[in-house]
């Protein structure tokens, strides 16, 4: 055996190098095949074990969930609500320009997955992590379903899907708000007064025991003139003089306890629709007709509103002011007025009149109601033009009255308008709201708004729900009016508006957000030259060059040309500061809404004055 081993060793040493390599390779291959057989047998044994099967199943599920999640988080940003489209435009760290084409919110959402379009004006340092993306998407889904299922009742009876947790601070429960406001906009069962001083907002829906309910009703003794309307914010000093009393008196004049009483007279009027009349002129005209109705002790009943004659306004609200805001009077009075219009004797007795009974002068420059004396004579000088406060001008009375009239006509938003604002706020502030909510949550404390048995906490539903939706504060609203307005007022370039904005920021250095409304594309383009401001604006087609407002609105269509200005109007009324041009009727009316909405002391910086002052 020793000789044999020696011979084998000599034979190997005598092999050629190539033969030795081939031999070594054959040996290696044999070893690899043996190893593969062993591994295969071992893998087969392991695959039949339960823990292995569970791990494989978990791995495959994880792959599927990750794929679905990545597809979801890359598909948000542009909301499609019928003809509504809102895009986001980040301009830098925490700086974004958001736009919207505000259209038919009541229509079914065209896509449930929200697509995202991001256009960076400079290198963005704002990183949207997965948690923010997921929260934003869940809020978008809730918003979509609340609009899609607008008329369906769910288990909580609110006509909305169960709200997400955590709650979206920038969204309103439009269905619930409309129901609450309907209760506040009618008289109580005793037909004396509306329930303005019992509870605020949804607190009136809080269920008391039968004994507590009886005690409350027994002790409650409404005093005429002592209750103030719930749509007015702030004290008398924070609004135009006598605002709370005037709003209360207008409501009672417009809501007689018995509309069929022969002493109740009516003024029925269509909204102005002559060519060239913009939406601001229509509002101003109806303010004049309300003044006539008060002077003649009539109930104003508005009829055909051409701007609501589109598919977004459905049912009885089509072609009606009630599509956007609560009606100016009760349904009983409306029915009574239209009945009297068919009776010849009612016309002969003067129980009914229409807009055609009055001249243009009566409507546009007629007598302002003197029922409340001359409150405009002691209005606070809070408007600045060219560096000086305006303490007096020739149209103080008209400025005060139009503010009261437009505030009353817009006292409560309809569910449709509320949804328009929800969509606009979500597109503009949704990501910021998600970051804010997540940054305020602590792992050491429970963040659920639910208590035992899965019920929401009462304070969440009945107290905190009355707060206004969140917006980044402070917020400056700026309406830049140019174009064909040059024939009526002095047109000022965008740079002058921004100069005034910097003046405000010098006093309030934490101000850096601007809600920009304008019909001119060049203004939007110029806003990109101010990287230290955050601009929010609707993504609607704007004018390029000169064209009349009527031509521009016709190019947008009736629905878009009505919805997006109203969103801008109401956002301006809720903003902390406002810069505009008092030579514009639109800015004039925005100023009126702010001065009857608790914002007198915020002031008003105007680039020009009204041409009639």
UniProtKB/TrEMBL annotation:
Q: Does the keyword Cell wall biogenesis/degradation apply?
A: no
Q: Which UniProt keywords apply?
A: Membrane, Transmembrane, Transmembrane helix
Gene3D superfamilies cross-referenced by the UniProt entry: 3.40.50.11350
Please verify whether the record's keywords include Plastid.
Answer: no
Signal peptide residues on this chain, from the entry's feature table: none
Transmembrane ranges? 54-77
Molecular function in Gene Ontology: alpha-(1->6)-fucosyltransferase activity
Q: Which GO terms describe its biological process?
A: protein N-linked glycosylation
By what name is this protein known? O-fucosyltransferase family protein
What is the protein's species of origin?
Daucus carota subsp. sativus (Carrot)
């Amino acid at each position: 055996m020793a000789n044999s081993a020696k011979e084998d060793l000599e034979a190997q040493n005598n092999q050629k190098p190539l033969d030795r390599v081939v031999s070594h390779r054959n040996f290696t291959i044999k070893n690899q095949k043996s190893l593969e057989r062993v591994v295969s047998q071992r893998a087969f044994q392991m695959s039949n074990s339960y823990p292995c099967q569970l791990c494989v199943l978990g791995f495959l599920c994880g792959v599927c969930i990750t794929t679905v999640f990545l597809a979801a988080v890359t598909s948000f940003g542009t909301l499609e609500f019928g003809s509504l489209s809102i895009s986001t435009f980040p301009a830098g760290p925490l700086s974004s320009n958001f736009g919207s084409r505000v259209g038919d919110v009541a229509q079914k959402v065209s896509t449930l997955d929200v697509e995202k379009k991001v256009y960076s004006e400079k290198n963005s340092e704002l990183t949207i992590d997965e948690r923010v993306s997921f929260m934003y998407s869940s809020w978008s889904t809730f918003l979509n379903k609340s609009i899609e299922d607008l008329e369906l009742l769910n288990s909580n009876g609110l006509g909305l899907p169960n709200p997400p947790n955590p709650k979206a601070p920038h969204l309103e429960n439009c269905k619930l708000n409309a129901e609450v406001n309907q209760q506040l906009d009618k008289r109580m069962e005793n037909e004396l007064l509306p329930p303005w001083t019992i509870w605020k907002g949804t607190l009136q829906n809080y269920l008391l025991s039968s004994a507590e309910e009886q005690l409350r009703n027994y002790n409650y003794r409404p005093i005429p003139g002592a209750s103030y309307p719930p749509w007015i914010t702030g004290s008398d000093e924070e609004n135009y003089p006598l605002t709370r009393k005037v709003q209360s008196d207008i409501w009672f004049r417009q809501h007689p306890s018995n509309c069929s009483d022969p002493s109740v007279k009516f003024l029925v009027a269509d909204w102005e629709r002559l060519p060239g009349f913009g939406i601001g002129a229509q509002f101003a005209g109806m303010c004049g007709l309300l003044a006539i109705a008060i002077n003649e002790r009539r109930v104003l009943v508005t009829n055909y509103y051409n701007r609501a004659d589109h598919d977004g306004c459905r049912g009885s609200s089509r072609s009606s002011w009630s599509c956007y805001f609560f009606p100016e009077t009760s349904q009983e009075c409306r029915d009574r007025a239209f009945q009297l219009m068919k009776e010849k004797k009612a016309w002969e007795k003067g129980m009914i009149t229409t807009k055609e009974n009055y001249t243009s002068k009566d409507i546009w420059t007629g007598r302002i109601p003197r029922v409340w004396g001359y409150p405009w004579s002691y209005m606070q000088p809070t408007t600045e033009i060219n560096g000086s406060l305006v303490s007096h001008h020739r149209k103080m009375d008209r400025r005060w009255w139009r503010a009261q009239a437009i505030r009353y006509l817009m006292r409560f938003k309809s569910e449709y308008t509320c949804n328009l604002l929800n969509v606009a706020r979500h597109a503009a502030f949704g990501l910021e709201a998600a970051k804010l909510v997540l940054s305020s949550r602590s792992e050491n404390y429970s963040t659920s708004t639910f208590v035992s048995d899965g019920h929401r906490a009462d304070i969440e539903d009945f107290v905190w729900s009355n707060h206004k939706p969140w917006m980044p504060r402070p917020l400056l609203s700026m309406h830049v009016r140019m174009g064909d307005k040059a024939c009526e007022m002095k047109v000022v370039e965008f740079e002058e508006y921004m100069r005034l904005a910097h003046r405000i920021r010098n006093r309030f250095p934490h101000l850096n957000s601007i809600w920009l409304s304008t019909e001119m594309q060049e203004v939007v383009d110029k806003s990109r030259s101010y990287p230290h401001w955050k601009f929010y604006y609707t993504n609607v087609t704007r004018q390029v060059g000169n064209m009349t407002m009527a031509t521009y609105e016709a190019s947008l269509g009736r629905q878009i040309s009505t919805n997006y200005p109203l969103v801008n109007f109401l956002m301006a009324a809720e903003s902390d500061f406002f810069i505009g041009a008092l030579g514009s009727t639109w800015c004039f009316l925005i100023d009126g809404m702010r001065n009857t909405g608790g914002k007198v002391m915020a002031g008003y910086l105007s680039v020009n004055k009204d041409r009639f002052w």
